[in-house]
Amino acid sequence: MATPVSAAKEFISGPRVVQAASKLLETCPLPQLCEALTVAKGEDAEPLVAALEGLSEIEEVRTLFLEEGVTDFLTQGASAPDARLRLTVAKLLVHLAHGEVWSIASTNKLLDAGLFNLCEPLLLDDETGVAETAAKAVCAGVGCAAGKQALLSSPGSLTDVLLRRLPSLPDVQRIRVLALFVQLGRAGTECFSSLEQKGAFEKVLGSFLTDDLLLKLNAVELMDALGSYELGQDYLARSNVPEKLEADLLDPYCDGSVRLCVTRLLGFIAGRSATASELLLRSHEAPFPQSIAGLLDSRDITSRLCAIHAWATSTLQNKGLVFFLKWRPMLEEMVSLLGATQNEIAKGAMDAWTIVLQARMPMASQIFS
Length: 369
Fold this sequence. Notes:
This protein is an all-alpha fold. It has helices spanning 4-12, 18-27, 30-39, 45-56, 68-77, 83-97, 100-112, 119-123, 128-141, 145-153, 158-165, 171-185, 189-198, 200-208, 213-218, 220-226, 230-237, 241-250, 256-272, 274-280, 287-296, 301-313, 318-326, 328-336, 343-358. InterPro entries: ARM-like (IPR011989), ARM-type_fold (IPR016024), PSMD5 (IPR019538).
C-alpha cells in the first residue's frame, strides 16, 4: 500500500497535470498529505512539500486547499516551530492568491477561511525566506477587488495592523514591512493612494530622512525602490523631499551609497516636477548638479553610471534640458561618453541620450538602434 511519501514522490516525478493530481489524491487525500508533513522527519518532508506546492499550482484542485481540514493545517503551520512548515504555508498562500481568474472567483473563500490573516505572522517571521514569500502572497492578493479590500481598505486590514505595530518592531522587521508598502504601491493608483492616505509612505521617508546613519543605510534600498516607479516618483516630488535630500549632498561625510541613492532620486524628481526642477537646478553650484559632476569624475563605474542616468532623467522637464544644454563642459562630457572605452559607460551614455531624445522626438530611438 502506498504511503503519503511514496505517493508524493510518484507525483513529483512526472508532469504536474490534473490527471496526476487526481491519481495522487485518490491514493492519499489532501488532509492526509498535510498531516503526513506535520510529522515527517528528515528527507521525507521534501517530497511532501513539493507535492503540496505542485497541487496548489493546478487550478482545478486549488479549491481543495480551502476545505476545513486543510485550512486548519495552514493555520497551524503558519506558527509551527519548523521553518520548513512555515515556508510551505507561505508558498501555498502565494499560489492560492495568484492568478486573476482564480482570485476573482475564490478570494472570498480565502477571506472566509481567514487565510490572509496568516500573512501577518509570516511577514514578521525571523526567517527571511518565509517573510519574502509571504510578501509575494500579499502582493498577489491585491490583484482583485476583494483582496484589495481585505488587505488595504477595510477597517482592521493587514496594512492597518502592520502600521500599528511598526513602532514596536525590530529594525529588520520594520524595514521589511516598509518594503512591502513600497511593493504594494506598484500595484496601481488605487493601492498607492490608499497607502498614502494611511501615511505608509511617510514612514518610508522617515526611515531615510534621519540623523541615525545605520537606519539611513538600511533604508537606501527602500528609497531606491520607491523612486523606481512613476507613482513613487510623483509622491517624492510633491512631498517637499528635494530640499531635505539636498542636505545629504551638502554633508561632506555623506556615505557613498546614500549619495548615489539621493542623486538617483533627485534625478527622477527633477524629471517629474517642474517646480522641483527649478529648485534643484537653480545654478551649476547647487548640490544636485554638483553631485552629478562629481560622480562623473569618479573612477567607480557604478558612480559614473548613476550620474549619467540622473543627468538624463533630470532633462525630462524643459528647465532641466535647457539647464544642461547651456552647461557646455557637462554637455561636452556627456557627448564624449558615447565613445567611452568602457562598454558599460558607453552603453549607459547611449541609454541616457535615448531618454533625452525620446522625450522630445518619438522616433529618436531609431538613432541608436
